[in-house]
Specification:
By secondary structure, the chain is mostly helical. It has three helices and two strands.
């Protein structure tokens, strides 16, 4: 079976790739979530909007963190954390689209 490698895109002394299967799975899950979100909701109309969406997702995660521990809670926290990562990366994409180089 071929080993999956993900290019980290880092430069210089931080350059490298990862073959960590868990990290590859997590990144893949977030990328899938980004693609799904972008089909439903185009680019944020403003930084304020993007921040609001990110804050909403963080609050949903925080609500789950405070719940009594159970197996369902960990699955739900995983899904919310994935959404936080998705929104954070989409916010980064929004910022990048507004920067002049």
């Amino acid at each position: 079976m071929a080993e999956t490698v993900v290019d980290t895109g880092l430069q210089g002394s931080q350059q490298g790739v990862t073959t960590d299967p868990l990290l590859i799975k997590l990144i893949s899950d977030v990328v899938t979530e980004i693609h799904s979100a972008e089909l439903l909701h185009p680019e944020f109309p403003s930084a304020h909007h993007g921040y609001g969406v990110l804050l909403e997702e963080l609050e949903e995660l925080w609500d789950l963190v405070r719940e009594k521990e159970n197996e369902h809670r960990f699955w739900a926290m995983y899904k919310e954390a994935k959404q936080v990562a998705c929104v954070a990366i989409r916010f980064m994409k929004y910022c990048d689209s507004k920067m002049e180089f």
